[in-house]
């Protein structure tokens, strides 16, 4: 009888709805082998978070009797192993998506298979995931496939991993065994560049430490799996990157309206912004941001909108709109990691279709640089690629396209290859960098890039951007930091606001327009210094958020470290090392930041440095410690390839 | 419009709009399956948003089994007129001629002939190369594995073991002559998301979703509403007037109602939150045997 109890209005619906809307969102995937209990774990999460309805439970009890592999109990794995073939074989053979939510977050889970021949499915699940759960059986510890899963997750840009040590009940909740596996994992995962990695003991079958702490694991002081999933900070990877807008559809309801429909893939766009059509180089300004709910003043990463421009320029599906000062690469050749997903081998030179963003072009692999053994990470020479093999390749296209490196933008840096004859999706690819066509540039020349220059100096180049009021201590602190970095053997350069204004920027004054240009130039300069492999310290008042954002956008994610030197206006004015505040107060200087020109404090700097009552030396130490801690200026990239 | 621009509903909305536009851009002759239910209502709303200020560049297709609730048909015509849309209504005429009905032929045969066959007939007749459906992955186990762009052979069949890998938001829309794609823009929505979105956006839905006194009979644990005089009572069955509403809509002799007093959207969402029965249990066709949706999908059902 489908009877629903009368509605109890014990809670306020609008409160509930708004609490639902403030929930954050996490997409994760689970990977492990057939016997590690992956489906059982997801079944457990659904079951414990009350996402299983009564009728589904009744069907489950029925199915458990028929197919169940767990004596007498409800087999939670049957909740997720959907297809009949899987139920009969007792294994998972395809990616399944599951949904659940808690008070804090909504979750989408991709359940992916562990068999070696299904690597492509794991890559599929990982392509949209923020986090990966690597499942192991406590009795087996880390296996070759655990390394493979970690590698694929890392290759697909998953930034967070959890090692779930399952079936802990089968070793009597033995702490020692767990600690051994944990130590193994920590030494091996340090070779990857994950932002977070957590090791958690649990029993999916009995529910220990999945959603509730367990007395059996009283020795474990870490979070339950669900707590960790609720709390882990994944950030919005593209909110910091430059604006990208792959045009999906030209919107022409009548002769008076010409708009470009698409989804913002990275960054933010505002009415009035100068944009460029990346492929053609034509520029215009954003006139309107149109939606059915009314025009917007800005649109952020992920928003689907329709843009109109001030000028009539030729734009069609597949074009990418980008900021004039921060363009994607445009090339007809690039190097990329390719995961082969078809039974038919990939052969260099064979023509395929390549879809990147909303653009589809003809493409072929011109050279397999090396094949990567996913178990040992060794590189091998290869003449062709078979199903589930991964290789680093050069590709050539039959026309130039716009793209970004995958590390910088998962949407504009990813592509699929499609077989021209069967129309199958045969490969997934992640762009590493563009190759120039110019025949007078030898390929060796391309190898000397930022990474190579930084590598030679044993460091990862970056910009340390000091912002704050005049007299806040920026330059003094930056100077002290540079000395300490020098002592650590780092190669540095300091761009100081006052010094630059004596040379490169001596033609600029202090109007808002000149201040913007001042920062644009120093941002471009710091980008060159970073490209030269240097840790570049920039000490500029840089009062406006937009220009600091511009500087951030010019650099690759993770290269820009903003330090807000926070000294109160009163304090700066009382210090007044150059007597400028006194002059400004008398009206002798106009447009002085803090007096008659605004200072927009950073909303989310990498480091908020409160200077009050502290010595220059301790402030500089704090910065250097943070940089080392965050691996910001560590020795060269830990990327494993 | 009370939705925060970063909420999960906006994320779902943005993703769906992206999918709908990709289909419109990549196919020559797409169509939107319009079943008149709440999921179709949301899908249509998203299509209107996706192309604004243009109208959706494809027609709606309604497969009419002739056993739909009368209120569904009048609501359909109202929506088409209100938004100036193109509507194609298709019925399996052969089935009508043979008087195929849910009483004499069983839910399984009836559904196959009047829905699955009729749909295939229409797709073939109009040479549609892509068809939008409002299915969601949270509805049922086999749907959880469905792609957003789901490839169908020239006989409209689905091969669950041979699906195209789908990565990032890159959908492969390449097909050969007479093959097609079913596109599911609501793949990542849950039932609760649908209702919250309807509430937040003020989307119009068929009045059958709201509780009202309706004539019902109880049969095999389901409550069936008598929508017209074609309903045949079995011996011992008696018609009662009860306050009921629908959580899902289909052909009236095959769609179970639930007893409820929820007569506003707010009440429906509140009721959802304490519901302990999944929505497809109201659809009698899914219960023929476990795994039965998968069988229907292989044959070409949505």
UniProtKB/TrEMBL annotation, chain A:
Swiss-Prot/TrEMBL keywords? ATP-binding, GTP-binding, Kinase, Multifunctional enzyme, Nucleotide-binding, Nucleotidyltransferase, Phosphoprotein, Transferase
Q: Where does GTP bind?
A: 32-39, 111-115, 166-169
Which E.C. number(s) belong to this protein? 2.7.7.4, 2.7.1.25
Record: residues binding ATP? 468-475
Presence of the UniProt keyword Transferase in the record: yes
Q: Which residues form the active site?
A: 542 (phosphoserine intermediate)
A Pfam family name for this chain? Answer: GTP-eEF1A_C
Name of the protein described by the UniProt record? Multifunctional fusion protein
The organism encoding this protein is Pseudovibrio japonicus
TrEMBL record, chain B:
Q: Name one GO molecular function term.
A: nucleotidyltransferase activity
Pathway linked to the protein: Sulfur metabolism; hydrogen sulfide biosynthesis; sulfite from sulfate: step 1/3
Please indicate which superkingdom the organism of origin belongs to: Bacteria
Q: Which UniProt keywords apply?
A: ATP-binding, Nucleotide-binding, Nucleotidyltransferase, Transferase
Q: Which Gene3D superfamilies match?
A: HUPs
Q: Does the keyword Phosphoprotein apply?
A: no
- Judged by the first EC level, this protein's enzyme class is transferase
**Which InterPro entries does the entry link to?**
PAPS_reduct_dom, Rossmann-like_a/b/a_fold, SO4_adenylTrfase_ssu, Sulfate_adenylyltrnsfr_sub2
Entry EC number(s) = 2.7.7.4
Ranges for domain Phosphoadenosine phosphosulphate reductase come to 29-256
Per its record, the protein catalyses: sulfate + ATP + H(+) = adenosine 5'-phosphosulfate + diphosphate
- What would be one Pfam family of this protein? PAPS_reduct
Key word Ligase present in the record? no
Quaternary structure annotation from Swiss-Prot or TrEMBL? Heterodimer composed of CysD, the smaller subunit, and CysN.
Family of the protein in this entry: Belongs to the PAPS reductase family. CysD subfamily.
Its annotated function is as follows: With CysN forms the ATP sulfurylase (ATPS) that catalyzes the adenylation of sulfate producing adenosine 5'-phosphosulfate (APS) and diphosphate, the first enzymatic step in sulfur assimilation pathway. APS synthesis involves the formation of a high-energy phosphoric-sulfuric acid anhydride bond driven by GTP hydrolysis by CysN coupled to ATP hydrolysis by CysD.
Designated name of the protein: Sulfate adenylyltransferase subunit 2
Q: Which gene encodes it?
A: cysD
């Amino acid at each position: 009888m489908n009877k629903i109890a009368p509605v109890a209005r014990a809670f306020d619906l609008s409160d509930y709805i708004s609490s639902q809307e403030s929930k954050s969102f996490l997409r994760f995937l689970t990977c492990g082998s057939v016997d590690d209990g992956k489906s059982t774990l997801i079944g457990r999460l659904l079951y414990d978070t009350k996402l299983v309805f009564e009728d589904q439970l009744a069907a489950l009890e029925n199915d458990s009797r028929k197919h169940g592999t767990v004596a007498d109990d409800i087999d939670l794995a049957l909740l997720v192993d959907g297809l009949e073939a899987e139920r009969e074989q007792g294994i998972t053979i395809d990616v399944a998506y599951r949904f659940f939510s808690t008070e804090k977050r909504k979750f989408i889970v991709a359940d992916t298979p562990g068999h070696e021949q299904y690597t492509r499915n794991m890559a599929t699940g990982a392509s949209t995931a923020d986090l990966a759960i690597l499942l192991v059986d406590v009795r087996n510890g880390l296996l070759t496939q655990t390394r493979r899963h970690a590698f694929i997750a890392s290759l697909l840009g998953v930034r967070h991993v959890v090692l779930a040590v399952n079936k802990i009940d089968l070793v009597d909740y033995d702490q020692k065994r767990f600690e051994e596996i944990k130590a193994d994992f920590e030494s091996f995962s340090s070779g990857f560049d994950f932002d977070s990695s957590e090791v958690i003991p649990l029993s999916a079958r009995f529910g220990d430490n999945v959603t509730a702490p367990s007395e059996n694991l009283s020795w474990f002081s870490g979070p339950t799996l669900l707590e960790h999933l609720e709390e882990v900070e994944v950030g919005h990877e593209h909110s910091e990157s430059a604006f990208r807008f792959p045009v999906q559809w030209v919107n022409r309801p009548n002769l008076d309206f010409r708009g470009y429909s698409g989804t913002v893939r990275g960054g933010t766009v505002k009415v009035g912004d100068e944009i460029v059509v990346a492929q053609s180089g034509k520029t215009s300004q954003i006139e309107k941001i149109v939606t059915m709910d009314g025009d917007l003043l800005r649109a952020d990463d992920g928003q689907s909108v329709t843009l109109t421009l001030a000028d009539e320029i030729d734009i069609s599906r597949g074009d990418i709109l980008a900021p004039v000062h921060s363009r994607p690469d445009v090339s007809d050749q690039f190097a990329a990691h390719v995961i082969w997903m078809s039974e038919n081998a990939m052969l260099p030179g064979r023509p395929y279709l390549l879809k990147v963003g909303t653009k589809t072009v003809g493409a072929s692999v011109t050279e397999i640089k090396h094949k990567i053994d996913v178990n040992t990470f060794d590189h091998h020479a290869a003449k062709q690629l078979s199903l589930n093999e991964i290789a680093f390749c050069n590709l050539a296209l039959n026309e130039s396209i716009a793209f970004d490196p995958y590390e910088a933008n998962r949407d504009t840096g990813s592509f699929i290859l499609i077989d021209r004859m069967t129309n199958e999706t045969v490969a997934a690819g992640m762009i590493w960098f563009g190759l120039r066509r110019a025949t007078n540039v030898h390929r060796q020349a391309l190898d000397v890039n930022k990474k190579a220059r930084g590598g030679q100096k044993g460091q990862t180049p970056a910009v340390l951007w000091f912002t704050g009021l005049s007299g806040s201590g920026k330059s003094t602190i930056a100077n002290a930091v540079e000395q300490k970095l020098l002592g650590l053997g780092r190669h540095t350069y300091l761009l100081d606001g006052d010094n630059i204004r004596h040379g490169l920027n001596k033609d600029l004054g202090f109007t808002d327009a000149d201040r913007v240009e001042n920062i644009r130039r120093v941002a471009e300069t710091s980008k060159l210094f970073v490209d030269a492999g240097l840790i570049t310290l920039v000490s500029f008042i840089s009062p406006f958020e937009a220009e600091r954002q511009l500087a951030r956008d010019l650099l690759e994610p993770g290269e820009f470290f903003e330090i807000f030197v926070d000294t109160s206006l009163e304090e700066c004015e009382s210090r007044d090392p150059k007597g400028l505040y006194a002059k400004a107060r008398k009206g002798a200087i106009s447009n002085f930041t803090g007096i008659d020109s605004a200072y927009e404090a950073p909303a989310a700097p990498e480091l908020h440095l409160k200077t009050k009552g502290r010595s220059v030396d301790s402030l500089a130490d704090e910065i250097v410690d943070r940089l080392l801690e965050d691996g910001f200026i560590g020795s060269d990239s830990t990327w494993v390839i | 419009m009370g939705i925060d621009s970063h909420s999960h509903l906006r994320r779902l909305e943005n993703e769906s709009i992206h999918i709908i536009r990709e289909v419109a851009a990549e196919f020559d002759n797409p169509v939107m399956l319009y079943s008149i239910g709440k999921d179709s209502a949301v899908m249509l709303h998203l299509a209107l948003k996706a192309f604004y200020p243009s109208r959706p560049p494809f027609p709606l297709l309604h497969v009419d089994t002739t056993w739909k609730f009368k209120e569904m048909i009048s609501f359909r015509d109202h929506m088409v007129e209100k938004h100036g849309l193109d509507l194609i209504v298709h019925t399996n005429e052969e089935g009508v001629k043979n008087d195929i009905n849910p009483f004499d032929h069983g839910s399984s045969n009836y559904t196959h002939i009047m829905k699955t066959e009729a749909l295939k007939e229409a797709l073939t007749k109009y040479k549609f190369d892509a068809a939008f459906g409002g299915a969601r992955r949270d509805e049922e186990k086999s749907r959880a594995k469905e792609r957003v762009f789901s490839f169908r052979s020239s006989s409209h069949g689905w091969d669950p073991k041979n699906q195209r890998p789908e990565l990032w938001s890159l959908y492969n829309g390449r097909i050969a002559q007479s093959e097609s794609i079913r596109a599911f823009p609501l793949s990542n929505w849950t039932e609760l998301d649908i209702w919250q979105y309807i509430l937040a956006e003020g989307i119009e839905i068929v009045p059958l979703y709201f509780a009202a006194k309706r004539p019902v009979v109880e049969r095999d644990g389901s409550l069936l509403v008598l929508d017209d005089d074609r309903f045949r009572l079995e011996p011992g069955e008696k018609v009662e007037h009860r306050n009921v509403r629908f959580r899902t809509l289909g052909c009236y002799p095959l769609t179970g109602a639930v007893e409820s007093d929820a007569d506003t959207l707010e009440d429906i969402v509140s009721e959802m939150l304490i519901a302990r029965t999944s929505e497809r249990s109201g659809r009698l066709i899914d219960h023929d045997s476990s795994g039965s949706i998968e069988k229907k999908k292989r044959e070409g059902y949505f």
